[in-house]
Amino acid sequence: MSQQAEPIQRMAEELAKLPGIGRKTAQRLAYHLAAQPLEAVRALAFALAEGRESIRLCTRCGNYTAGELCAVCADPRRRQDILCVVRDPRDVAAMERINDYHGLYHVLHGILSPMDGVGPQDIRIRELMDRLKGQEVSELILATNPDIEGEATAAYIARLAKPLGIRVTRIAHGVPVGSDLEYTDEVTLSKAMEGRREL
Amino acid sequence: MSQQAEPIQRMAEELAKLPGIGRKTAQRLAYHLAAQPLEAVRALAFALAEGRESIRLCTRCGNYTAGELCAVCADPRRRQDILCVVRDPRDVAAMERINDYHGLYHVLHGILSPMDGVGPQDIRIRELMDRLKGQEVSELILATNPDIEGEATAAYIARLAKPLGIRVTRIAHGVPVGSDLEYTDEVTLSKAMEGRREL
Lengths: 199, 199
Prior knowledge:
CATH class of the largest domain in chain A: Alpha Beta
Oligomer: homodimer
Strand order of the largest sheet of chain A: 4-3-5-6
Largest sheet of chain A: 4 strands, parallel
Strand content of chain A: 5-15%
CATH topology of the largest domain in chain A: Dna Topoisomerase Vi A Subunit, Chain: A, domain 2
Helix content of chain A: 40-55%
CATH architecture of the largest domain in chain A: 3-Layer(aba) Sandwich
Number of domains of chain A: 2
Shape of chain A: globular
Order of helices and strands of chain A: HHHEEEHEHEHEH
């Protein structure tokens, strides 16, 4: 809208590029920032630019870190012989929230997706194989998402890792805790039946 | 969480200060930005900091502008003798969207609220009175929000402006177009009855 001050428009345009931030929300945020003290907006801008600049990938697992190793890899109390394979650094954060896993991670930074032209060489599978060959691993847990790409990627990695004599496991599929059977989709329900355990 | 890379935490903390952005959304956005090219994040940071820095208040009406006068005040086709009083610059944007108002604005940058310690000297009421005394105004439209503070502010300004012989009007209260009578609150419905017009 030509009636809007140009700086507001520029701010809103950039904010609207963020996921989940539509044109209206971006505009609301831009007006909010316009009414904030200059210092507060500078602090936000600095945190974003400087934060992005200082992010490195952990040289061992590929998780985000500001240093050489991520907090998990640098922790000597973690079990070094269990690796959990995830797609993104945010999946590491999700796993860490359960406070129940004490091994290490391997972050793929992507998922196999022939439709999108993503092959094994585009994600950190070679780095994973190097780790598996270079260190004693007693269990490799495949924790990619339970969708088509996640399953295919897990199957692909399992085929590569098993010949090395490593125990390869996959996280369980089933009915989420707190959910309602009536509203659970058929595939999940069938996986839950398939994976049933004796009590 | 100590398991999260520190830059991610700093980004998320700053983003969570934005209105409507909770801790979870802020974290999701931080992870998103971490995966973006450095240049894209720098462009966002620059647009915010530089945008905020270049925002001025229109010396005439108080609307946001990058220059001396805002786009509305600088437009010679606008009627100079009608003023519409609004609370925020974003209300100017809302009014402009109807494409039906051709006068000027006056932005109060706040609303009278004794509970929050906001008095007449804290918002741009003196500037409004100066304008009313300094130029020919045939109509003063009070378009503050239809809530307690908005009504009180409108009443306060009306009391000051009427002795100057200026026609003072208030935007209509009533049933929003497309809404359902059944779900309209009683006060709005009673205002709609009160303001009924002959067809």
